Amino acid sequence: MTQDVGTALLRINKYxxxxxxxxxxxxxKHHFKSLFKILEALGYKWSKNCYHxxxxxxxxxxxxxxxxxxxVVDADDLISxxxxxxxREIRKCYVGKKLSNHEVNKRSSIIGVGAIxxxxxxxxxxxxIHFNPQESISFDGFTGPYCQYAYARIFGILKNAKNKKIxxxxxxxxxLGNQEELLLIQKLIQFPEKIKIxxxxxxxxxxxxxVFDIAxxxxxxxxxxxxxxxxxxxxxxxxxxxxxxxxIVLKKGLNxxxxxxxxxx
Length: 265
Prior knowledge:
Number of helices: 9
CATH class of the largest domain: Mainly Alpha
Largest sheet: 3 strands, mixed
CATH superfamily of the largest domain: Isoleucyl-tRNA Synthetase, Domain 1
Structural class: mainly alpha
Number of strands: 5
Strand content: 5-15%
CATH topology of the largest domain: Isoleucyl-tRNA Synthetase, Domain 1
């Protein structure tokens, strides 16, 4: 406790901070509650800006990820396992097609690491997590790969539309009005507010959930409506702008979670 008091003072003075956020397991809740009270009793006004961002335990099928119980789970091993799962999924999608080992390794790394991050960040920090490797790597459902795939799907459409001009000028956005389009637009508009809430509450799950909702709304839209073969050229242009905007938000949202995107999955 005395070390933490001294360290808090050192950090505040050395870096001219206005607040301190301690990212430490939930079992230390009482410790930090006591620390903040001690700092307050010592007359440090900034003690009110100290926050314990507690997080729950992560469980794997084999047991707790807790080294002092002798059940050590090396992060590198977990990442390697996830990359192997991702490689299998990629191979399934490219049966009969050539894909270099370099490209497979690149994609499996981005998908595998992204799957872990998304699975851990999609719930509140204090909640215990029962990590399911197979579930987390799925291209379908509330997962990182599902969101990455939505981005790649949009990129493919935009790539095929390279001869079509995507220009905000002279676009009639009143052409967008069906249920799926309006839902997708609504989700895009809500994105900045979700970031603000996530930041104010120190809770990135708001971003993860909303990124998933956007990916889901895009898939619902795309499964029911044509983009490149829409009824009119004007509708093609405005829908291309809609999905391009969706891709921008998906990429920004995933990047905020530390997850990269792929142009092809």
